[in-house]
Amino acid sequence: MDALSQTLRVVHLVGAIFINARFTAPWCYQSPCADTAAPFLEPGAERVVIFHLISEGGCYVELGDAPPLLLSAGDVVVFPQGDAHRMCSRPGLPPATGARLDVVLARRPRQLSYGGGGAVTRLVCGYLACDKRLAGMLLTGLPPVVRVNLRDSSAGVWLESSVRYALAEARSPRPGGEGVLAKLAEVLFIEVLRLYMHEHGKDRTGWLAAVSDRIVGAALNALHKDPGHAWTLDELASTAGTSRSVLAERFLKLVGSPPMQYLTQWRMLLAANLLRSSNSPLIRIAEEVGYQTDTAFSRAFRREFGAPPATWRRGQEKRTMAHGPVSH
């Protein structure tokens, strides 16, 4: 199993589609920053990443001082840093004023329809909620706006059709429609990452670029496949088919940290997931992520999370009781 698949398998992600919109030109929709929207979208989530799918027509994205970005049908845009932005039929339009965000999101997916009666644009707004450390790992090195077109891949075409079907089902009296949409939102986000890796992975730094790299990707696959192994840099370089010095230099350039430091961070992310989702004893979790004693594990975990594992686990339990589980 490759590093991306392994990461997505073991770390809990939550997705949802929260707006299904039909706009007619002229129109402008203001999307708040992710930190502002998070309490309404997914209470208790550490990080929320917002995305939009253009299913019909076209529009522009305005973000800060950057030139407006033209989107067409089939495009998906993701905002890795959670920036506030505008979606509009033409640049420079003032955003519409309407109900408060908590009112808009009271029912999902919210049906929005407004504009001046001109050309039609349909778009779907969704989000992915996850651990902030996972988001930091997956999304590091990405630009403020990531755009891919689903219609460039057979999987994307199927996914876009499935989203349209699920949106129709969500309005039917049959149960389960919102749950299907939630899963499709997760798959849509993952497909966007895969398409972006294929199109741009070789041109950038960051975790996704590293996964696409022949040398560093092989090392990451090995670390993610067997994180509990007592890896050394020499053994990891041999597995990746290169020298110790080449691996160390290339890994640091793409990932931003040395291989052994990255391994510790990945082990701690795995441990946090196990602490949050299971009742396993600390010693068992320690062994699973590569530590022979719970003392060594506790020391490493505290360095990463600022609290011993048992204390951190109790904090997560209290958080769940306060907000409910981060799921649908």
SSE string, helices as H and strands as E: HEEHEEEEEHEEHEHHHHHHHHHH
Integer-rounded radius of gyration = 21 Å
Query: Under the CATH scheme, which architecture of the largest domain would be assigned?
Result: Sandwich
Q: What would the average pLDDT be, to the nearest integer?
A: 89
Question: Span between N and C termini?
Answer: 27 Å
Q: What share of the residues does DSSP label as strand, in percent?
A: 15-25%
CATH fold call of the largest domain: Jelly Rolls
The CATH superfamily of the largest domain appears as: Regulatory protein AraC
Short description:
The chain is α+β, with helices and mostly antiparallel strands. The protein has 14 helices and ten strands. The chain has a six-stranded mixed beta sheet with strand order 8-1-9-3-6-10. It has a four-stranded antiparallel beta sheet with strand order 2-7-4-5, with no helix packed on it.
Write structural notes for this entry.
This protein has about 325 residues and is α+β, with helices and mostly antiparallel strands. The protein has two domains: about 10-200, Jelly Rolls (Sandwich), CATH 2.60.120.280; about 210-320, Arc Repressor Mutant, subunit A (Orthogonal Bundle), CATH 1.10.10.60. About 50% of the residues lie in helices and about 20% in strands. It has 14 helices and ten strands. The protein has helices at about 5-10, 35-40, 100-105, 130-140, 155-170, 175-200, 205-210, 215-225, 235-240, 245-255, 260-275, 280-290, 295-305, 310-325; strands spanning about 15-25, 30, 45-55, 60, 70, 75-80, 85-90, 110-115, 120-130, 145-150. The strands form two sheets. Strands 8-1-9-3-6-10 form a six-stranded mixed beta sheet. Strands 2-7-4-5 form a four-stranded antiparallel beta sheet, with no helix packed on it. A hairpin with a 6-residue loop joins strand 4 (about 60) and strand 5. The longest helix has 24 residues, at about 175-200. The radius of gyration is 21 Å and the shape is globular. The mean pLDDT is about 90.
